[in-house]
Amino acid sequence: MRIGVNTRLLLKGRLEGIGYFSQQTLSRIVAANPDIEFVFFFDRKYDSEFVFGKNVKPVVIPLPTRHPILWWIYFEILLPLYLRWYKIDLFFSPDGWMPSKPKIPTVNTIHDINFLHNPEFIVRKMMRKYYMHFFPLYAANCKRLITVSEFCKNDISTAFNIDKSKIDVVYSASNGLYAPLNEAEQQKVRAEFTNGKPFFYFVGALHKRKNLENLFRAFDAFKHKTQSDVKLLIIGSLMWKDRDIEAAYDNMVFKSDVIFTGRLETESVIRIAASSLALVFTSLFEGFGVPIVEAFAAHTAVITSTTSSMPEVSGDAALLCEPTNVDSIATAMESIYTKPDLRATLIEKGKIQHQYFTWESTSEKLWTSIKQAASAK
Description:
Blueprint: E1 2-6, H1 17-32, E2 37-42, E3 56-60, H2 68-85, E4 90-93, E5 106-109, H3 114-117, H4 125-141, E6 144-147, H5 150-160, E7 167-169, H6 183-194, E8 199-203, H7 212-226, E9 231-235, H8 243-250, E10 258-262, H9 266-274, E11 278-281, H10 290-297, E12 301-305, H11 310-314, E13 319-321, H12 326-338, H13 340-354, H14 359-375
Parallel strand pairs: 1-2, 1-4, 2-3, 4-5, 5-6, 6-7, 8-9, 8-11, 9-10, 11-12, 12-13
């Protein structure tokens, strides 16, 4: 069998969430199936580290997919031609994009449909239109559809009128490097980033969906009530994505206690996670929420939202709060800070919850779906 794979998000030094999902699953699937030939389709020059085995043939379709018009040319015209030229038997896409009318069995992965619930979060009108038009077709016309939580399975099924029996839940997982630190190492991290003070942290894009406006307001409320020396670390790009986020920060009383680190290497993020009071990840919407699982692996507490997939991923190992309720977030922060026994209990529960999410399990379930699509008539 010859399997074609959309690998356009395997970018050296720029592996975001879906790119990392692609790397972790594909590397394991390729290694476990040496008798299968995989053709990886890149949209630009690739790095050899992403050619995971001798059974992988890398192919560049020379059109970087950076704009909706280029998406259309790449997936509707060029990719179908390449699938024929390379005699592909089955196509797998880990990032949602695929030919809208595939001629061969296709397994697609739609991580979430946040664009449908919150279209205003996608600033560019042409991108919104592309998502709204093509993703229902992608969901309808693939042989098997993968998603990353039961919440997303139900959401996609309802929104796009897709039979649930066609949708397979394949959970994501954390970077395997996340691990706890001893107290001496934690003190070094605090000295490096917060002048020795305890801290909460957020990691992710500075995007409207991540609810930073209410996080800033909640941290202000927490600081006002506790009069503590606790800091808030924001890990992510320093470029503001939304004027409302910038305004919320500018209006803070305790904004001097908010520390923007910018984007950091994974090793630094791991050290910060393992040295924190808690991750505060109170997004408005998540298809999965990898930072939650990463925090569990680093043996730190988690504060997250009652919405979308986050209760499913966190189980009983996190404090859940209403993301649109500032007092709810502030109260959760106060509980973590003032109740060390509660924090310790959450950490122990997080260790257990983390065991449900492994790349080995993810890859095995994904490969089962691919085999099922290949054998279906």
